[in-house]
Amino acid sequence: MKKILIIQVILFCNLFALTISQNVVKNANTVLLEIQKENISNVKLTFHTQNIDFFKNKFKKNTYSALLPISYYQKKDNYRVIISYLENNKKVFKGLNLKVVDGKYKSEVINVSKKKLKPNPSRVARTKKEYAEAIKIYKSKTNKILWDEEFIYPLNSKITSNFGTKRVYNGMLKSYHSGTDFRAKNGTPIIASNSGIVKIAQNRFYSGNSIVIDHGFGVYSCYFHLSLMNYKVGDFIKKGEILGLSGSTGRVTGPHLHFSFRINGIQVDPLNAIEVLNSLKKQ
């Protein structure tokens, strides 16, 4: 797993440092920003349409951290990230440059009859309801870190489909692969990437039996197509515990684990997210 490079961009002698994990970022990746300073409050950032609160990093003294997820569909361009905080009852502003570049994800070109692209009315209501319920959860935030150790992969097996692969139907981008698929025959134990609270434990049309874990501060890990779920909504699960067994439930062609991440409501590359999250603990 490659290391996240922390770039220090501002440093003052009065114990103030503002750092950013990278100032050139691929779409669907996550950026970590940190401020090390005493006696400040209400630390926030603004990027494009996102407004994100920093959180007190329990792993580092006098440090506030923020996770900035970049959408898969974010325009490739140069941006300005604005950071603000209160100090001595005065609002202070700082700015950083951030360039979003193309992640160069692979494409799958599929040519099918237009009739096959037409939605089936019988399942539209169900999928819309399930999507709305999930998005409401992903956009909510538990305002504390629920984990103490580094994130891990949910199983040790071959990756069969990478995150971000474009699905181009009849020359038009219709979707992309929203997670990382791991090879897993039916009944393979799947473990929690880290500790948190189960927010979804439900059979859904596309993702089948699904477990979603809230790790705190807008971070969610997702485990889809399970044959068995060992936890219910509201349960606290610890890192490494078996949350269920792999399967082929939902809209799939065979058994595997679909593993994905949401940060502040935005779908991101889960393997990159794990690298960034684990850097929260590194000095």
Description:
With 283 residues, the chain is mainly beta. It has three helices and 23 strands. The chain has helices at residues 114-117, 121-138, 270-278, and strands at 7-12, 16-20, 24-26, 30-36, 41-47, 50-53, 55-56, 63-69, 78-87, 90-101, 107-110, 159-161, 166-169, 172-176, 180-183, 189-191, 196-204, 208-216, 219-229, 236-237, 242-246, 256-263, 266-268. Strands 12, 15, 16, 17, 18, 19, 20, 21, 22 and 23 form a ten-stranded antiparallel β-sheet that branches. It has a five-stranded antiparallel β-sheet with strand order 1-2-4-8-7, with helices on one face. Strands 3-10-9-5-6 form a five-stranded mixed β-sheet, with no helix packed on it. Residues 9-13 have low confidence and may be disordered. Keywords: Signal.
For the record, the count of structural domains works out to: 2
The CATH topology of the largest domain comes to Glucose Permease (Domain IIA)
Q: Element order, helices and strands? A: EEEEEEEEEEEHHEEEEEEEEEEEEH
Task: Give the DSSP E fraction (strand runs of 2 or more residues).
Answer: over 45%
Radius of gyration: 20 Å
Major β-sheet profile: 10 strands, antiparallel
In the CATH hierarchy, what is the architecture of the largest domain at level 2?
Distorted Sandwich
* CATH superfamily membership of the largest domain: Glucose Permease (Domain IIA)
CATH class of the largest domain: Mainly Beta
The structural class is mainly beta
